[in-house]
Amino acid sequence: xxxxxxxxxxxSAKALSxxxxxxxxxxxxxxxxxxxxxxxxxxxxxxDRRSLLERLxxxxxxxxxxxxxxxxxxxxxxxxxxxxxxxxxxxxxxxxGKKRFPQxxxxxxxxxxxxxxxxxLRIHPDVRAVGAEPHFFDRxxxxxxxxxxxLMPRTLDGQITMEKTPSYFVTKEAPSRICTLNCQTKLxxxxxxxxxxxxxxxxxxxxxxxxxxxxxxxxxxNASTGLIDTSWSAVRIGLYAKHLENWLQHFPxxxxxxxxxxxxxxxxxxxxxxxxxxxxxxxxxxEKHFYFNQTKGFPCLKKPEGSSRPRCLGKSKxxxxxxIPTGVLQKLRDFYRPYNRHFYQMSGQDFGWD
Length: 354
Hints:
By secondary structure, the protein is α/β, with parallel strands linked by helices. The chain is built from 14 helices and 11 strands. The strands form 4 sheets. It has a 5-stranded parallel sheet. Strands 1-4 form a two-stranded antiparallel sheet. Strands 7-8 form a two-stranded antiparallel sheet. A hairpin with a 4-residue loop joins strand 7 and strand 8 (227-228). Helix 2 (45-56) crosses helix 4. The longest helix is centred in the first third of the chain and has 31 residues, at 2-32. It starts with a helix and ends in a 7-residue tail after the last helix.
């Protein structure tokens, strides 16, 4: 009886050990096949196809689009290999939109109101814009088109990609470079009374360099003769007619919109209506989005949903201007008058700066 009981206990232990090993084997089998993961793996093949095509990118000059032939060239096997290597079998995230070259560019002018215009435009759901100034067509052209395209935000079909770099307007090479990329690009120029613009430009520089010479010593070649120094950039930028002549060698006038910087302050909704029409957008940005900030002296955006405060431009905007001798300002007005009138004729708009 003792030996029989021992054999029963031995056989029971053996059976229990076998069952334990079977359970362990089953557990490892299911884990290796991925069934025991705490979260199910999801593979969005269509989205991965789109994401891979975006990473491959179109050839320069294709304006960010992918042809049907290109899409067919990417096989599902490549997508599965690409997605399986991500994040050690973590779920594949969905990617929306494509990086496209800008269909519209705010090309100028410095201290005219370009930052305000860009911020107002970014309210529109069909506008996606780069926040910082890329300076591609004036400073970084040698980096290549792919570098430029990768700076752009992703956009969905029907949305417009935009950027703004005010120095493009006064850069001799910028028009031909932009046209080489896309001669159908829409161009927005924010202009402002060139005398006021020059003082604002000087004010900005003075804030960064307190030791800057006086405005009048920079604006005048000779105080006694009163000749204006057009080599000073603050004066040269205001020669709008001369800069526009350079652009019209590459683009027709119909592709330009000239936004009045003064009206962008006094009637932001009205000017934004013109901008939205020019871009072919529904008029979404309207009076309800703005309020006038008495302290800064220009309009701000009302508090958007989910935000605790209204949105105004930064401290660098709305600086008080230094006092400039009246005689110096009058010399500048006399100097700019013929250029302004020529610009009115070229643009078809009288901005009333005289």
